[in-house]
Design brief:
The complex is a heterotrimer of chains A (103), B (682) and C (168). In chain A, helix 2 (29-53) runs antiparallel to helix 3. Chain A has 3 helices and no strands. Chain A has helices at residues 5-25, 29-53, 60-90. Chain A has a single domain, classed as Helix Hairpins (Orthogonal Bundle). In chain B, helix 4 (93-116) packs antiparallel against helix 5 (123-141), helix 18 runs antiparallel to helix 20 and helix 20 (431-456) packs parallel to helix 23. Chain B is an all-alpha fold. Chain C has helices at residues 2-21, 25-45, 49-73, 83-86, 91-111, 127-135, 139-167. Chain C has 2 domains: 1-80, Four Helix Bundle (Hemerythrin (Met), subunit A) (Up-down Bundle); 126-168. The longest helix of chain C has 29 residues, at 139-167. Chain C has 168 residues and is an all-alpha fold.
């Protein structure tokens, strides 16, 4: 397969941008977390792409990827727990309404 | 006495005024009740001064040279910058004679004053001032330095002021003391100008110095230096100094203070206004005589002579028409001072100075005598209310008679010799002046005779009226017998006049010796001597005759009787009112001064205060401008707007802190985008 | 075989886009799952099989399920919202930023010529090797990761539980 590196990179860039859009533009906290997950995945994809095209022999990149995925999972767990906790307090997960740190 | 010893004496001259000065200082601290102590202190001090002065006199007598033996002692008073002020004491015949006269006459006047002021409350104050005066006068005569002389001159003026207004609660006395001081002040302006000019031209204020550069020693050189008004410097200085003498010695037109000075107690009149202070002007002219004679052709000497002549005649005419016993004597003093000045102006130092000496004795005698009369008649001073005192007060009468004869110029009394000297010199100088002076001598004899008859002859007129309205009464009238007859005075009042009358008789014989003593050549040219002597004797006889004719043959009956001379009508009133000089001064000088005062007050208020207010207003305006510009505008405005900006800025920036996480995230990614941009484009 | 790449890419992108634009939250999660699958496909294509398997297991098996749970527990936002209500305030700011970033990244990538094909014939790493590496060279990160996950687990429980305990 002769897929140029560029394409993969552009793909991951594009996915990152989409994830960023979601994180910035939606007002529901869970969607924001989704966007963050998307960004994560784009990054890890990038990682694997470079592994594939450069460091195919080494295992480092894969290790990196494993750990990254683990961390992403842990992070999303915490994030969602927070969302639940916030929901309990505010009775809503709309980010626009959470302004108690204002000023 | 040899020169060295004489020099030593010169250094000790300052002891002569020291004792009265110390006595005055002590007396100023004594309580009022200590009369005996005060008088005793004063008299003792004066006695010591007299002894010292006589010692100095004897020392100078012993030299016997024709050359004047003059020793002096100069010392530096203080330095300032590169110049210094000197003081100096001198011992020469003129000084010795004056010091001896002042202290001797002063001593007897002090004795008399213990009786005159016996029932006055302010006894101690009187003696304190008298001592101070004696010290100042003695300081004046021993001074070799013009500054010291001027200081003592002013001091005697001050003492005169204090003593004339001794009864300051009387308005007449208060006015008289001011008048005396201010009038002599006017003369002092000229005097001071003279001193300044002399200092400027000669560079020293010492009259005689060891290296021959004293102010008087340079008089000859000054005669060739140009001065003012076409005179040489020496004559200009002499003229200015003479103005001071005019003020102090009551010459016309500055004579107005002397009659009013009679408001003071009679011992004061005797000491200050007859014998000593008024003589200070004459003495000063005599002291500075080298300056007067330096330029022979100048008009200054003539000016001096004519002023003296005019004063002599003028005051003699006024004396004829006075009723107060002391006023007559005051105008007489004025007239005699005119004689002295005329003598000096005519070119004879000896004539003027000798008459000064003799006049001191017999005028003091006359004044003390009038003091005895006043006390004896219970403080009566109007001659119309006296009369017939011969039988009540014999000792006073005889002494007064001697004085009167001396003054009139009856030989062989002292006044004849001294006045004759003056008339002789004047005759040599100017016949016109001599004529007038002889007329003045006639008047002198006349008014003194008038006074003698009015006071001592006839019958006592004092009981005619109520006793209460005599002149110049004290506030407390402590005599035992009111409205009673006059009585003789106690011994401490008649003893002095007795002593003085001895001198009034005998002093005249020393006129020739005095000339030698002073170092002036006798000049016994016989030219004119016979005419002058003859004329003098004639006018004296005429004066006595007329006096007897008008006042003696038929004495006044009652106090309210008209004076026989009043038949002259307006002329008499003119004379009685002192030629209306005082009124003239009032209308011109005083009015002018008042106008000036008003003008200057307005000037002060409008211009000076106006400028001050303007400056203050400018300062205020500047401060307001600073306040508005600096404070209001910049500081307050700037500061306030700065704070406002910060506040608004903070408010604006606070909107960034929305508290919404998503917004923070947006900003974050925006920042990342910018960084990428930068990375991309660089 | 580039076609597979393009199909997989299409799926991935589609899943991502749908995940952030759908109204219904459940639908969002499902499209997210689609996205994850696409990524896994890419991993397979890149011959990183283990990672692909891990991706599927963890992301789809755990994270997506977790999200479903969270959605269900924070119910009231499903359904009835217009496009306006979906998007948060100033959404355009975020969109714009993302677009800018995309463009920049594209430009950056384009600038550096990174065109390269797959190196042929190199042996890929096997799972055994990964396992060995994990407990040999990479044991410390491995253990650290274990701690991290434990902490995350406990933390999540504590955070999500707190209210309930307090209510009692």
């Amino acid at each position: 397969m002769n897929i140029p590196l560029d394409h993969y990179l552009m793909l991951s860039a594009f996915l990152f941008a989409i994830g960023l859009c979601g994180a910035l533009a939606r007002k529901n906290a869970i969607i924001v977390l989704m966007g963050i997950e998307i960004m994560f995945n784009a990054g890890i994809l990038n990682l694997i792409v470079f592994w594939h095209y450069r460091y195919f022999a080494s295992v480092t990149a894969q290790m990196f990827a494993i750990f990254a995925i683990s961390i992403a999972a842990a992070e999303s767990a915490i994030g969602l727990a927070l969302v639940i906790a916030v929901y309990r307090h505010y009775k809503s997960v709309t980010l626009d309404e959470m302004t108690s740190l204002k000023g | 006495m040899d020169h060295a010893a004489l020099q030593h004496l010169a250094q000790q001259q300052w002891w002569i005024p020291l004792f009265p000065l110390v006595a005055a200082a002590i007396q100023s601290l004594l309580p009022r009740g200590q009369r005996k102590l005060s008088a005793g202190l004063c008299i003792v001090a004066m006695g010591v001064s007299c002894v010292l002065a006589l010692r100095a006199l004897l020392a100078t007598l012993g030299t016997g040279h024709h050359e004047v033996e003059r020793v002096f002692f100069n010392f530096t008073w203080f330095h300032f910058g590169t110049t210094q002020l000197d003081m100096g004491l001198i011992l020469d015949p003129l000084t010795a004679a004056m010091a001896a006269m002042v202290s001797f006459v002063g001593f007897w006047i002090f004795v008399n004053a213990t009786g005159y002021m016996a029932d006055d409350d302010n006894f101690t104050r009187f003696f304190c001032f008298l001592s101070l005066f004696a010290a100042s006068m003695l300081g004046l005569v021993i001074s070799n330095n013009l500054l010291l002389l001027f200081m003592c001159w002013e001091l005697v003026g001050l003492c005169s002021y204090l003593l004339i207004g001794f009864w300051y609660f009387k308005p007449a006395a208060a006015a008289a003391m001011k008048k005396a001081f201010i009038t002599t002040r006017i003369g002092d302006v000229g005097f001071f100008l003279g001193i300044l000019m002399l200092y400027y031209k000669t560079g020293t204020l010492n009259m005689y110095t060891a290296d021959g550069n004293g102010a008087l020693q340079q008089a000859g050189a000054l005669a060739h230096v140009a001065g003012w008004w076409g005179l040489s410097a020496a004559s200009t200085i002499a003229f200015l100094l003479f103005i001071g003498a005019m003020g102090k010695s009551a010459q016309f037109p500055l004579h107005v203070w002397l009659p009013d000075a009679m408001e003071g107690p009679t011992p004061v009149s005797a000491l200050i206004h007859a014998a000593t202070m008024v003589a200070a002007g004459v003495f000063m002219v005599g002291r500075m005589y080298p300056l007067f004679t330096a330029e022979p052709g100048s008009w200054v000497m003539d000016f001096v002579m004519w002023i003296g002549c005019f004063t002599a005649v003028f005051s003699a005419t006024i004396a004829v028409a006075q009723f107060d016993i002391k006023r007559v004597l005051a105008y007489s003093t004025c007239s005699q001072l005119g004689f002295m000045v005329m003598g000096l102006g005519a070119g004879s130092l000896v004539a003027g100075q000798f008459h000064l000496l003799t006049h001191a004795f017999f005028k003091a005698l006359l004044f003390l005598g009038s003091g005895c009369v006043i006390i004896g008649t219970h403080h009566e001073q109007d001659m119309r209310k006296m009369g017939g005192l011969k039988k009540y007060m014999p000792i006073t009468f005889w002494c007064y008679l001697i004085g009167m004869l001396a003054l009139s110029g009856v030989p062989p009394f002292a006044g004849f010799f001294s006045k004759d000297e003056i008339l002789l010199e004047t005759f040599r100088r100017s016949k016109a002046a001599w004529g007038l002076a002889t007329f003045a001598a006639f008047l002198t004899a006349f008014y003194m005779t008038r006074q003698m008859f009015m006071v001592f002859a006839g019958k006592w007129r004092g009981g005619d009226q109520d006793h209460g309205d005599g002149h110049d009464k004290h506030d407390d009238h402590g005599h035992g017998h009111h409205g009673g007859e006059p009585h003789e005075v106690p011994w401490n009042m008649w003893l002095p006049i007795a002593v003085l009358s001895v001198f009034a008789i005998g002093l005249g014989f020393f006129s020739h010796n005095y000339g030698l003593y002073l170092g002036v050549e006798g000049g016994e040219a016989a030219e004119g001597k016979a005419i002058v002597m003859g004329a003098s004797l004639t006018v004296v006889a005429l004066g006595l005759l007329f006096g007897w004719l008008i006042y003696g043959r038929k004495t006044m009956e009652h106090a309210t009787d008209e004076d026989p001379l009043a038949a002259m009508g307006a002329l008499f009133t003119f004379l009685n009112r002192k030629w209306y000089i005082d009124e003239f001064y009032e209308a011109t000088v005083f009015r002018f001064t008042a106008v000036c005062a008003v003008f200057f007050r307005l000037f002060d208020k409008l211009v000076v205060d106006g400028i001050l207010h303007a400056i203050a207003w400018v300062a205020w305006a500047i401060s307001q401008m600073f306040r508005w510009l600096g404070d209001e505008f910049f500081i307050n405005g700037g500061f306030d707007s700065g704070c406002e900006t910060v506040r608004l800025g903070g408010k604006t920036l606070a909107t960034l802190q929305s508290g919404r996480v998503q917004n923070y995230f947006r900003v974050l990614s925006l920042g990342a985008a910018i960084l990428l941009l930068i990375y991309f484009f660089t | 075989m580039e076609l597979i790449f393009w199909i997989l890419s299409a799926i991935t992108v589609l899943g991502a886009i749908l995940a952030i634009t759908l109204r219904n939250l459940i639908h969002c999660v499902l499209s997210l799952i689609l996205f994850f699958l696409g990524i896994a496909g890419h991993y397979f294509l890149l011959r990183a099989d283990f990672i692909a398997a891990v991706q599927i297991l963890i992301y789809i098996g755990a994270v997506a399920v977790l999200m479903l749970f969270a959605i269900m527990l924070t119910r009231h936002v499903t359904g009835d919202e217009g496009p306006r209500e979906v998007l948060g305030g100033k959404w355009w700011a975020g969109m714009g930023t993302a677009v800018i970033i995309a463009g920049l990244l594209w430009a950056i990538i384009r600038k550096d010529s990174l065109a390269q094909t797959l190196p042929a014939g190199t042996a890929a790493t096997s799972v055994a090797e990964i396992g060995k590496a994990l407990v040999a060279n990479w044991v410390v990160p491995f253990e650290a990761m274990a701690v991290l996950l434990t902490a995350a687990l406990i933390g999540a429980v504590v955070i999500a539980l707190e209210e309930v305990i307090r209510k009692r």
